[in-house]
Specification:
The protein is built from 22 helices and no strands. With about 525 residues, the chain is mainly alpha-helical. The chain has one domain: Up-down Bundle (Growth Hormone, Chain: A). Helix 4 packs antiparallel against helix 10. The longest helix is centred in the first third of the chain and has 35 residues. The protein is globular, with a radius of gyration of 24 Å.
Length: about 525
Amino acid sequence: MSTDPEKQPTKVSPISSVDQDESTLANDELYELSDSVLNRKLKLINDAIDEIGFTPYHLKLFFLNGMGYWTDTQLTYLESSVRTFVNYQFGYTYPVSNEMLAGGLLFGALFWGFSADLIGRRLAFNITLLLSAIFTILTGVMNNMASYCIFVFLSCFAAGGNLVLDTCIFLEYLPHKDQWLLTFFAFFWGIGQTIAVALAYAFLPNNSCESADNCPSHLNRGWRYVYYTNGSIVLAMAILRLTVIRLKETPKFLVSNNRDEEAVEILQKVAIKYNRPCSLTLEDLQAIGKVEINDDYRKHIDIAGTLKLMYHHVKILFSNRKMARSTTLVFVSWLLLGISYPLYSSFLPTYLATRGANISAPDVHGVYRDNLISNTVSMGGPLIAGALLFFFPWLGRRGVLFIGGVMSMGFLFGYTQIKTRPQNVALSALSFASMYIYYSALYAYTPEVFPSVARATGNAIAIACTRVMTCIVPVIAYYSDTSSSVPIWICGAFVGVNGCLALLFPYEPSKNRVV
């Protein structure tokens, strides 16, 4: 512990915190909560987290939470890469497995997200990857489409809560000056999809049927190998989560539910372990009073009481005009994103096939090679977003969102004019990278503008918005004229609109602390 008084941060006493007027708080925290006691307690928690600073514990959280992003996109690209060969073997043409994937991710986001605000973040963090790994490995064993789809759904249901909770957990431990690191989580997304595509490239070309006319299981083992390998990777990451770090519940969740003693104990342990100062005491929190925002609802632990508490958390997201505007714009952004990105991915292969032989690769090896290049380049998007926030902090989250959205629109519009295979690879890679600038900033921004008492709920609904549209996109792709460039124009327009919507967001988390 540091003993130099000049190096010690100013301690906010409970009395001065209670006596502060709202204008003073508004200059420090991002938004006001209706429960002034909770608002002031969260301010003290923020003070303590800023006082402790960034530690090796945060670095472990960064990588272990990033594995959740990794798994989400890995399973998505895994299913899309093997879908054709699974359909060959089981005699299907409609992408029913893609619908089950989207449904699993949708219900997983809602289930784990809402439950995280009810019982805490720790349980989901510890078991979601483990369950997902087990179900993914078992998916490769299935011998008919019905059982295959069931396990696709279960694996994605288990993994669906990761995008909801990973940013929440990391954010609620993170000092304000380091919150820009949230944008880097999408880098793990790029790793996951690149690994999925690379494994598909390794196993599918030489271990798959060429058509549905003659596709017995013994000639079509490639998709099973892909599932076994991807599932094993997820299992290894699940074991790392359980062994490298024993996650404690986030202090902000604890104080929101009148568990002040546990919150102080966790912060003090982190400070002591890494020799950092932490002047927060239990007396500081208890002197402010009791949090009432959830208290009445938690007295009735039954189905009706749980539903009322869930509805109460949703109402918090719209508790005043400014917060309602913010929440609505964030949900609309996710909804439009859920149309544009999957629609682009679904229409692209067929669209390219109509452009001529010199646009696409002539064989399966070439297709996967080009796809691997595009997905590898996509990892640069989150790095660019993080660099923009670090070197140009005046841009803020909203500025980076605008840049990512408008750049994506330009590259997608340009994509409709490609004439050669190198142009195809280049524009595909640039489109992915620019969209990931927007994606990474939005994934970071979303949990920041929801209050901790309902953060997982808001995050769950936001991601559910994009999952709902993901369920609809395969239907559009199946019944529409995919040879037209119109869908790509629509995708570009939607991403551009999202970039402009970001300028209307009322909150800028880079300037104020989240509560």
